[in-house]
Structure to design on (324 residues):
């Protein structure tokens, strides 16, 4: 990425000078592309915030070209920049700004789906609505978030039924998973769990029928959201079922010993699973997990910095001392 910046800067100098003098429209088009691509390099080297001014430069040039080049082509490039900017603002937790930019992108996607109407554009619009739902949920606007998620599902379902897109399991699963988070925040836990079950079912089809093993981590992420919520609300048996699915999915990905060491998220889930087994009186099963948890803590004491782990590990250590 660092090396690419030199070439981008040389191209900018060229297009702002010689090329602009004899073909200003071509120069503006190429500059818009270069600034957008350069922002990706800056993002990877310096972070998202420093990349935003370059995206703004690109957006400004594409906007100026709306009446000077083929509109569909310019709009397709402009919406890409808006979507990228919304994503980066979202990651920076600048949610209100992200929502404004994303709404501009959605309007352009709508225009393009009406004029061109390809499956690809319709799916991009659906994913735009999904992201919008996620931002609204974080802003505490749960009912509006559900409306956006419903729009996303409506588009995806139409692509499946009308255009025969039977390959959209992952996209539908992602929307359902995001919708489940919103429902949980609204206190609608049963509906949220139903969404998780449906999303997990779609991902399992991809993993076990279609052989897409790389979807296992996504399956774990979806299940863990509901498992943690069930655990915290006292639904121990429901949480046990979900954590067992998570544990078995990890075992399909790696050796048993590595489950506890792979990263903090996996470690946290194994702690919760072991505590649940203890509280259900299944000490023998829990005892198989506790030594791995203890070894992982000895290897990386920072695992204990997780607040959700701190309150539960002493319970497991006590069981370890008793010989489990």
């Amino acid at each position: 990425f660092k090396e690419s910046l030199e070439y981008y800067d040389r191209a900018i100098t060229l297009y702002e000078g010689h090329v602009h003098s004899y073909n200003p429209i071509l120069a503006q088009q190429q500059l818009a592309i270069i600034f957008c691509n350069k922002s990706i390099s800056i993002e990877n080297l310096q972070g998202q915030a420093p990349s935003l001014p370059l995206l703004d430069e690109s957006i400004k040039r594409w906007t100026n070209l709306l009446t000077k080049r083929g509109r569909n082509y310019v709009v397709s490039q402009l919406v890409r920049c808006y979507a990228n900017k919304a994503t980066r603002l979202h990651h920076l937790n600048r949610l209100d700004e992200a929502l404004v930019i994303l709404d501009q992108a959605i309007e352009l996607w709508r225009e393009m789906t009406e004029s061109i109407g390809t499956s690809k554009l319709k799916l991009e619009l659906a994913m735009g609505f999904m992201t919008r739902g996620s931002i609204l949920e974080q802003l505490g606007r749960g009912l509006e978030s559900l409306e956006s998620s419903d729009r996303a599902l409506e588009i995806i379902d139409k692509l499946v039924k009308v255009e025969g897109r039977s390959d959209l399991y992952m996209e539908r699963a992602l929307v359902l998973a995001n919708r489940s988070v919103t429902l949980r925040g609204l206190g609608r836990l049963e509906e949220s769990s139903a969404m998780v079950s449906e999303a997990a079912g779609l991902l399992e089809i991809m993993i076990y029928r279609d052989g897409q093993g790389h979807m296992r981590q996504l399956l774990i992420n979806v299940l863990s959201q509901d498992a943690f919520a069930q655990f915290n609300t006292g639904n121990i048996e429901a949480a046990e079922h979900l954590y067992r699915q998570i544990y078995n999915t990890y075992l399909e990905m790696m050796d048993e010993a590595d489950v506890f060491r792979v990263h903090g998220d996996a470690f946290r889930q194994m702690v919760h699973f072991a505590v649940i087994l203890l509280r259900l009186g299944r000490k023998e099963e829990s005892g198989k997990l506790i030594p791995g948890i203890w070894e992982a803590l000895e290897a990386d004491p920072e695992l204990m910095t997780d607040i959700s782990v701190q309150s539960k590990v002493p319970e497991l250590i006590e069981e370890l001392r008793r010989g489990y």
Summary: The mean pLDDT is 87. Residues 120 and 191 are 30 Å apart (CA to CA).
